Amino acid sequence: MKNSDLEARALLNLGTINLNASQENKVKAIDFYQQSLAIARASKNSEIEQKALSALKSTIELLEKNLVIVRDTKDKLKEINILVSLGHAYTAIGDNSKAIAPFTTRMV
């Protein structure tokens, strides 16, 4: 069954499941949201496109909040994981200047 709308919705749902699962699954969530966004754009489904963009932006907000907490605990491995996830999320929404920033952040 070739139904791009259903595929985009399924990917969006998989992203949400992974986002809520664990910190390690944030990258998977971002990947699913990005795939959903690409399919929605290709099929010109603005409803799903907006949902995928919203999900990515919510993920970015969550990651930025987690980053503050993790920096307070001085857990460098978690900090690196969050920075990588942020870079991927910003790339997914097309904000390349912010996508580069996490990868160039100097760890103290």
Could you describe the 3D structure shown?
With 108 residues, the chain is an all-alpha fold. Helix content is 82%, strand content 0%. It is built from five helices and no strands. α2 runs antiparallel to α3 and α4 packs antiparallel against α5. The mean pLDDT is 87.
Secondary-structure map with pairings?
Blueprint: H1 4-21, H2 26-42, H3 46-73, H4 76-92, H5 96-104
Could you state the order of secondary-structure elements as H and E? HHHHH
Level of helix content? over 70%
Record field, number of beta strands: 0
End-to-end Cα distance: 51 Å
- Rg is 14 Å
Report the oligomer: single chain
The parts where pLDDT drops under 50 for at least 5 residues are none
Largest sheet geometry: none
Helix segment tally: 5
Report mean pLDDT, rounded to a whole number. Answer: 87
Instruction: Describe the global form.
Output: elongated
Our estimate of the beta-strand percent is: under 5%
Secondary structure category: mainly alpha
